[in-house]
Amino acid sequence: MKIGLVKANFPGERRVPLLPKDIKDFKNEILVEEGFGKFLDIDDQEYSDKGCHILSRAEVFAESEAIFSLKLIQPTDYYHLREGQMIIGWTHPFGSGQSFMKEQALPKKLIVVDLDSNSPCIYYENEIFESGIPKGLLYKNSFYAGYAGVLDALLQYGLIPTEETKIAILGSGNVAQGAFSSISKYSSNIRMYYRKTMSIFKENYTKYDIIINGIEIGKDDDPILSFSEQKSLKKGTLIIDVAADAGNTIEGSHFTSIDAPIYENAGKYYYVVPNTPSLIYRNVSQELSKILSENIFRKDCSRFIEKVKPLNK
Amino acid sequence: MKIGLVKANFPGERRVPLLPKDIKDFKNEILVEEGFGKFLDIDDQEYSDKGCHILSRAEVFAESEAIFSLKLIQPTDYYHLREGQMIIGWTHPFGSGQSFMKEQALPKKLIVVDLDSNSPCIYYENEIFESGIPKGLLYKNSFYAGYAGVLDALLQYGLIPTEETKIAILGSGNVAQGAFSSISKYSSNIRMYYRKTMSIFKENYTKYDIIINGIEIGKDDDPILSFSEQKSLKKGTLIIDVAADAGNTIEGSHFTSIDAPIYENAGKYYYVVPNTPSLIYRNVSQELSKILSENIFRKDCSRFIEKVKPLNK
Amino acid sequence: MKIGLVKANFPGERRVPLLPKDIKDFKNEILVEEGFGKFLDIDDQEYSDKGCHILSRAEVFAESEAIFSLKLIQPTDYYHLREGQMIIGWTHPFGSGQSFMKEQALPKKLIVVDLDSNSPCIYYENEIFESGIPKGLLYKNSFYAGYAGVLDALLQYGLIPTEETKIAILGSGNVAQGAFSSISKYSSNIRMYYRKTMSIFKENYTKYDIIINGIEIGKDDDPILSFSEQKSLKKGTLIIDVAADAGNTIEGSHFTSIDAPIYENAGKYYYVVPNTPSLIYRNVSQELSKILSENIFRKDCSRFIEKVKPLNK
Amino acid sequence: MKIGLVKANFPGERRVPLLPKDIKDFKNEILVEEGFGKFLDIDDQEYSDKGCHILSRAEVFAESEAIFSLKLIQPTDYYHLREGQMIIGWTHPFGSGQSFMKEQALPKKLIVVDLDSNSPCIYYENEIFESGIPKGLLYKNSFYAGYAGVLDALLQYGLIPTEETKIAILGSGNVAQGAFSSISKYSSNIRMYYRKTMSIFKENYTKYDIIINGIEIGKDDDPILSFSEQKSLKKGTLIIDVAADAGNTIEGSHFTSIDAPIYENAGKYYYVVPNTPSLIYRNVSQELSKILSENIFRKDCSRFIEKVKPLNK
To answer: Which reaction does it catalyse (chains A, B, C, D)?
Structure first.
């Protein structure tokens, strides 16, 4: 199958999801946009040495049966998408990708292969199909979200924590584990709270200098840190939301960005930058490329078409 | 109340639970055995400067109404214990302290104030009383068990882990968090598994170079790593049981000691050293002394007698 | 003596050189600009509680006999400076402070007390006087320049180094030591080169993925990494100049800034951000305030006038 | 040439200097003692799969033209050595290997190829020949001496350093750099002193909680820490001599061992364990094997005979 890889144009995105060294025994033809490897100083020649075709962005879209885009396809590329094309990547069909599904996927009968960690499925003509992609394939990406987000937040806040800095981490999933690993380089004065021990956090939350959130709560769940609780935090407390669950777990919080990563409200500081794995894109690209090559690019991607075949006659 | 502090004689125990700098406004008289601070280079004079009485071991036992012993009182001291004396410390009444309870506590009507993290209670004449001591008072000690145990195990095994070393941590409680924090100094190639994700561990456990256990399972629970599963681990895999739950979570494993910390079985290596917080006694003593001074030694300890008063008429 | 402390207006400067908790037994009157502690969430009230006078910027300049300014006084404040006033801080009289000396210090007969690490002297009417300030008083600031600069550079470059990343550090002084300490959190694949071993670096420099410079060479010294040597570095090599010795040690390199910290040239990346200690201002302020309180603010600063008294009749 | 590799019998030595994965295109025949890879769980079969001959210890000595022994050949093996045999390894001809040179090398006309970092030479019949081995080939071993020695010393002393722990490192060579990298995982409150700044150390040495020595001074040099200076150190100060320069740099200090690593003298603690790289033998073996394969085992070792040929007619 012809798979097209285009340069990321998602704001702040610098990860390169396929590296020449991992291109081995691919049962797919790979079309790569000129300068695809630029962020990692990889020349086009290195991709063509591995049998890839180097084309312009438009040509890649035009000649590919499937487009791999790590992040959501941006509106500026909508006009490239052709009827029946396959899209592989994080598409967040029930989240930030809803408008893409409505405006592009449905009308153009796109075959959307979503790499969501918990339910990697195929979305086609309002139906959901099992994809055969292992669950948690890219779990480490969430780990990196916590890992890189904490480091960036600390530097932007201007503090290297020490054993004197009291640190709470909410959640014990991959994002929280990445945050825990990252901040452990500097301090072991950390306590990780999860469902069973959250009551202890509620009794002690005002003691913390840094509170790191790694939890995405459900729409109807109560926030873990309400407005009033935030008010009783110490002056100067730093809240790092590496789950980027803006406004939910930390009531009233809003997104920040890589260029303006921290805002202050009533003497507390909030870091709610999304897409933080891209901060350490040189590490993450290595891992992504290895996993995607083994699980997506190596085997013929027409296998995903067969999954939706009956509808796709 | 007269509280006696004697030098630790529990094998390998070097923590000093009370430091002169924390002795302020104590509503108790403190009797300290000569050389009590020796492990931390604290002279007897520094204790007497703070109003403590420096006595021989026998005199401390003889003149104290309550004996503080961080670890279980050892048989060699049984003969010192007098009728109705109070014992404060970790006494493990349902675990390793059962024989102490049977042979000493009951017959001598001792008032046993147990500092157990989850249920800090008073045991007196076969009855259990609420102690008023906050739960999780010494939670950080479990954290240190994981923290120090992992570091010691790595050095004994001869490996500083890198990003190439695949590491699994079982559990997300304090012991597991200490282990996670400790090994994060060297690698972020870590995944922490807990109840909800243990099935993923079961599918992947053979990939790991190091498996760290931070879980104490119940008597009737299945082991998390059975004999057969251990057989299919990679040659040279290191299993660090910082919960020191010998024979349970890791089927068939047995205790090791600080002097002989690792044994090999079928090409796998096992570290099951108990009491690992004592490895970094210089850090832990600081924390213990502060917490115990605030929560145990400052207020009059006769408060514990009042808790059991009706029976103690 | 009346000492005035005004908010930093040096680009990117966020350190607060005096904290209320360190104000004890000062033989000087302290005048503080409103909002002086803002970066560290310290209210004006906390300074007035310690006997400081809270004034507007203009009033501080107007009423102070000495102005403490950590960084060079900026042109926008020149008009505030009065004849015979004392300036205490880093004034770089032979470096970036030359124009200040010429335009302000000399004509207004300012008494300039320079806190330079190697030669902390007083400059007054073209004469240089010994200050009595201990050498190396603020050596740790250079350490932090290396420490924070490396961390920021890595995040901007998008890489957390591992044991696979080959790292060279040039120099063994305080800046180089800070860089060494910082990057050691992530990798031990480091070699520090100094005068005696620089020849070994010259034989091996093309093997390195990251080259960190902690050396300020003399005006007439050869660069340590010439244009041609830079050309033969690996594609993607990151050069972090935490000595910010732009154009000297690394031939042809130029300053970058906190907002645009890295530039690429022929596939190599250059980070040459000056004033990096300010990146971790929350840590550095604590240390600065303690040292400055003990060595500058506590004793009567008129002692510096006496040093230049004969001329100042 | 036939090269024999025997199991280490140097006290505490666990490094395995050749791993099967590095055996490629060797121009030498390799004879390996049974169980040679045991410490790293490498079976004899893995060596024979790579063309090695698996023999008893005696057979290896009997059939090899050259014996590779990382550490000094022990007296228990002297009787194996045959006239004219080659010995490759660290032989310390002017240090601990003097008796070996006198009792074995000279009388049996052994060709001793010493892997000393600064002067890798061949010693044959009282003559010294250039070996062609690059200088600093195994420099990283000294780095590991500092790295592992510091970690072991801290654990034996019972302290994980924090930012409150004042740490001095003497020297800026490879051993000192390893120590610096190791302790930087836990604290950045470190200052490295070398020739130019040693005077500053002499003015401040009593402030330090931990003093790490990475310097081997010359026989006639004054100690860096004299008896009297040691007396004025703080009670409980830990002195870690990872240069293991017992009795010289730290006046009066004596060797300790892995089993009894620390002694106390007048309230100060001394760690002077030699051969500390072997503590982390699993890391160091990987590095040693790669470097030795490339620089020693790959090319025909008879090249060393040719270096001494005229004498060896």
So the answer is: N(5)-[1(S)-1-carboxyethyl]-L-ornithine + NADP(+) + H2O = L-ornithine + pyruvate + NADPH + H(+)
Q: How far apart are CA D46 and CA D54, in angstroms?
A: 10
* pTM, two decimal places: 0.96
Only one residue has tokens 């100690």, namely: D223
Say whether both B231 and B308 belong to one domain.
Answer: no
Would you list the DSSP string of chain C?
Answer: -EEEE----STT----S--GGG--S-SSEEEEETTTTGGGT--HHHHHTTTPEEE-HHHHHHH-SEEE-SSPPPGGGGGG--TT-EEEE---TTTTTHHHIIIIITTTT-EEEE--SS--EEEETTEEEE--PPTTTTHHHHHHHHHHHHHHHHHHHT----TTS-EEEE--SHHHHHHHHHHTTT---EEEE-GGGHHHHHHHGGG-SEEEE-----TTSPPSB-HHHHHTSPTT-EEEETT--TBTTBBT-----SSS-EEEETTEEEE--S-GGGGGHHHHHHHHHHHHIIIIISS-THHHHHHHHHHH-
CB contact under 8 A, A282 and C185: no
CATH code for the domain of B200:
3.40.50.720
Q: List chain A residues with CB under 8 Å of B174.
A: 191
Question: Same domain for B29 and B113?
Answer: yes
| Cβ–Cβ below 8 Å for C182 and D191 | no
> What distance in Å separates residue B251's CA from the closest CA in chain A?
26
Whether A264 and A170 map to the same domain: the answer is yes
Domain count, chain A: 2
CB D305 within 8 A of CB D38: no
CB count in 10 Å sphere of residue B99: 10
For chain A, the residues whose C-beta falls within 8 A of a C-beta of chain D are 160, 162-164, 185, 188
Q: Quick one: average pLDDT of A7-16?
A: 93
In chain B, what residues touch A178 (CB-CB under 8 Å)? 188
Instruction: Give yes or no: residues C154 and C266 share one domain.
Output: yes
Q: How far apart are CA B143 and CA B242, in angstroms?
A: 10
**Which of B15, B38, B152, B159 best tests the D interface by mutation, with the highest count of D CBs <10 A?**
B159
Is residue C312 scored above 60 in pLDDT?
Answer: no
pLDDT at position B309, please?
76
Question: A133 and A41, same structural domain?
Answer: yes
CA distance A187 to chain D (A): 8
A106 with A164, same domain: the answer is: no
- What's the token pair of residue B275? 């009491």
Please name which of B14, B3, B31, B13 lies closest in space to residue B297, comparing C-alpha atoms. B3
Minimal C-alpha gap between C282 and chain A (Å): 5
The answer to whether the Cβ–Cβ distance between B155 and D185 falls below 8 Å is no
For C181-206, write each residue's pLDDT tens digit: 999 999 999 999 999 999 999 999 99
Interface contact flag, A177 B194, Cβ < 8 Å: no
Interface mutation vs chain C, best among A41, A262, A270, A284, most C CBs within 10 Å = A41
Query: Residue B51: which domain range?
Result: 2-137+281-312
Q: What is the residue-level pLDDT of chain D in tens, covering all 313 positions? A: 999 999 999 988 999 999 999 999 999 999 999 999 999 999 999 999 999 999 999 999 999 999 999 999 999 999 999 999 999 999 999 988 999 999 999 999 999 999 998 899 999 998 999 999 999 999 999 999 999 999 999 999 999 999 999 999 999 999 999 999 999 999 999 999 999 999 999 999 999 999 999 999 987 899 999 999 999 999 999 999 999 989 999 999 999 999 999 999 999 999 999 999 999 999 999 999 999 999 999 999 999 999 997 655 5
How far off is chain C from D15, nearest CA to CA, in Å?
19
Strand-pairing partners, residue A53, are A31
Q: Same domain for C121 and C185?
A: no
Taking residue C78's Cβ as centre, other Cβ atoms within 10 Å add up to: 12
